[in-house]
Amino acid sequence: QYFEIDAQGSLDAWRIKLQPASDAIALQYQTIEISGAEFTEVLVLNEPGGDSTRIEFFDVTVSPLTDGSSH
Predict the structure, then answer these.
(1) Is the pLDDT of residue 69 over 60?
(2) Rounded to whole angstroms, how far apart are CA atoms 35 and 61?
(3) How far is CA 42 from CA 17, 32, 53, 58, 70, in A?
(4) Which residues of 11-38 are buried (b: 16+ CB within 10 A; e: fewer)?
(5) Cβ contact 42:57 at 8 Å
(6) Which distant-in-sequence residues (6+ apart) come within 8 Å of 4 by Cβ?
(7) What is the DSSP string of the chain?
(8) CA-based nearest residue to 34, from 71, 68, 3
(9) Is the pLDDT reported for residue 64 higher than 90?
(10) Is the pTM of this model over 0.70?
(11) What is the Cα–Cα distance from 24 to 22, expressed in whole angstroms?
C-alpha cells in the first residue's frame, strides 16, 4: 500500500486525501488531495517543503465511445 486514504463526502461533493505510506513517496509529496462532484474538479499536490501545485478541471464532458474508437 502506497497511501493512507481519507475519503469524505457524497457523490455530489466528495474529497479524497492521500497521505504517503511509503518513505520514497513522502520525499516527493506530503499529501495529495482530490475533490469533485460528478467528475474530478481539483487536484492538489502538496510537497514537503511547503510548495503546492493546484490543478483545476473546468467544463469536463464525457463523450460515449463509438465503434472503431481507439480510446
Answers:
(1) no
(2) 17
(3) 12, 11, 10, 9, 27
(4) eeebebbbebeeeeeeeebbbbbbbbee
(5) yes
(6) 18, 19, 20, 21
(7) --EEEEEEEETTEEEEEEEE-SHHHHTT-SEEEEEESSSEEEEEEE-TTS-EEEEE--S-------TT---
(8) 3
(9) no
(10) yes
(11) 5
Bridge partners, residue 53, by sequence: 45
Rounded-to-integer distance, Cα 19 and Cα 62, Å:
30
Report the distance separating Cα 25 and Cα 13, nearest Å. Answer: 27
